[in-house]
């Protein structure tokens, strides 16, 4: 067989690889033999007019027959291949933008064009995880100045779709995560749209947390809407609560975030570019950003929060966004519920002005809605909080919430989980510390967010006087096995809640 | 089925993944279902007493049946599993040393203990490529000071096996690569051992070049020797030429080098730690390091070479090695042959003092051997070159070379490749530039180092007056297809050799 005859027949293998594209080729395939495996760590696989870059895995079993080639599921989807299609494989040409990444590694400042090349190649799938990790690391640790963060943000804005609402003021909010139960978004949307502002809210699902806003809203309404449906809902109601996953806004960000999660770092520059590019691409003009600060929150010190505030406001100005930062208390979870349905119950309780509604969640939502009302110029400075509270307590926010849900196709009430278990205090004393990360982990082990009704109801707050035997929180789960999973973790970790 | 019953039956799949360990589990496996795939990107797989960390690939075909689990070939080997063994899977506990990597990303200085933890976890296989890339990037761009490079070197020395020769002086040489055909090592070993020094030389195979010293020596003798065999040869002959791959010296380096190759960066700190840790672990005391400098060599400027010289000598002192740096011309290939057999022919030609022997290769080898003779104190300063030349021209170096080869099991002559093609000058003029990287690529496309006899014979040197039609080089290949491969590349790249 000719060494340069590089066409093979596709066979479906059904392997989902999570990370990179993988191509499977036999050890005795002529391409492998003529080039050597080591030289072929990454290759280009094409089916005209599409082509992808994939990592080579070499197969020595009859999973593939001679002349056959396999692809990981996501890679097959990207190439749009079917069984028995002919695929062409070739050497990976050098990735020119890696020169910019190397320059950044060696402490050089990059310009907008360089960031543009890098983001283009990342979106084309040409970067391996090794390359992505190097780019993120080289940009972390204050190695990007404000010009660079601005350039990266601008490049990311135009890297995917952008929305245009034909209105001069579009408001949005964002929370620099890390606080379980901090589900203010649905409340803020309800208040500000009830007040007449436009807030087409796209939210994410949980990546490492027990619930994302999209997970919580999905308990009560449909969140997977087409662009046309979103437009109809927003034109009719002034707002929406939808999952942003299909919107393709700043898609490079989705690639980078996965690597940042694996490294457990939030490069300040990348964080700013990530948040602001998504907002600008979604057509927002005025954005309030909530930064909870606490030892076990994402932002751990007031100093970090203030630097983030200055830099975010400056980059916002440079890309044409009016940004207001609100630094909040991030020392403990917000509201009572942690998990999609439990958080939905909190949201409804606040909207209905029930006496049992969690006051901390209500106060935070009113604060953020009030800031948005002021930032947009809808109400004068100093009046925002009062007006937001008014629209909430009058029931107008509740009515608007139900209207939006119905416009999205349904309004459903959250249902409780079948299995629960109360966790009681083992000593008396004062509640001294709550570990946000560990309580989030506990909720996830109970089954959240996959099992919508799973999670935790937390009844206590920092500073509370606790009596031995008092219920601290309830675990909710769909299976007894998951309840036991969570309980095992709780028994192994005495420092989830500290009473002194 | 219980969600915490995590035992599955191993099935051999025959997939070689090149990079990370991969574990294959079915989409409907209880562990995947109870935890969610996203949460399980990396998991621990155990078969007592061994355990590894692997990336999860999710299988939706009948490649695996319910209750079965698969592993990539290298992972299966590390765990020592056989068909139908029961394997246990569990969550990956947090990798504590990643905290040090994050600290380094944020520009903090790490101490020896921190580097120790990182290297230990890397050797345990706990780091993914994402983590490895972040560690390398965070250490690149002059972000390690001399203390840190020294600490990393010390940690790497003790991370694997170390050799002890019971002698006060053990010499070695190393070349900071990048120059095709620069095969001085066999000549240096022959000269200095003929002079009575001990030089137990372990060499590498090619990773991205057309030939490593081990590939070239394998043409003429056996290079895969056991520790006992190496000891016998060195005790008898004072030296050896063996492949270092089985020696397990500084094994962390092997892991890091793969990532550096993918990034195409040579972090100075990592480079120094890599080279010096291998030498110290091999029991060397006096080391000469050749740094070729040239536009298309690994080290591109005299300034970089001089900084590397200062830092390498300083770290050498700190870890107890006497290091001498020799900065050489890296503007063009050395010798005539590029490829294992062709380089072996050059080596033999120099050893036999043939008139046609490439003088540049001879001069370089004599220079380095002379430096080693002086550095070791065997001859007085200023006398090294003359003594090395003497031992070469007297035929003693040749005799020693043959003796060592025979002690290693055989001496064989290199054989020529069956297919050749002469590439001729398309214009007259002066030879202005040779691209080391592209000429190396051309040799690889011809089949080197896999096909031992493949490669290039280069007949011209920078500054030569060239006449149109004159043969510039000959391509050698084992198949006509490979010859065509190389020719296609040559035709696409006019700047391999520039005549002005």
Please characterize this protein's 3D structure:
Two copies of one chain form a homodimer. Chain A is of the alpha/beta class and 500 residues long. Chain A folds into four domains: 7-91, Barwin-like endoglucanases, CATH 2.40.40.20; 97-161 and 248-277, Transferase, Pyrimidine Nucleoside Phosphorylase, Chain A, domain 3; 171-245 and 282-407, Pyrimidine Nucleoside Phosphorylase, Chain A, domain 2, CATH 3.40.1030; 419-499, Aldehyde Oxidoreductase, domain 3. Chain A has 18 helices and 19 strands. Chain A has helices at 30-35, 73-79, 98-105, 112-123, 129-139, 146-157, 185-194, 213-220, 227-237, 251-263, 268-281, 302-318, 340-351, 359-375, 384-393, 396-407, 436-445, 480-492, and strands spanning 7-10, 15-16, 22-26, 42-47, 50-59, 68-71, 86-91, 171-175, 199-203, 239-243, 286-293, 322-329, 337-338, 419-424, 429-434, 455-458, 465-466, 471-477, 497-499. In chain A, the strands form five sheets. A six-stranded mixed β-barrel of chain A has the order 1-6-3-5-4-7. In chain A, strands 13-16-18-14 form a four-stranded antiparallel β-sheet. In chain A, strands 8-11-12 form a three-stranded parallel β-sheet, with helices on both faces. In chain A, strand 4 (42-47) and strand 5 (50-59) form a beta hairpin. The longest helix of chain A is centred in the middle third of the chain and has 17 residues, at 302-318. Chains A and B meet through strand 2, strand 5, helix 3, helix 5 and helix 10 of A and strand 2, strand 5, helix 3, helix 5 and helix 10 of B. Strand 2 of chain A pairs antiparallel with strand 5 of chain B, so a sheet runs across the interface.
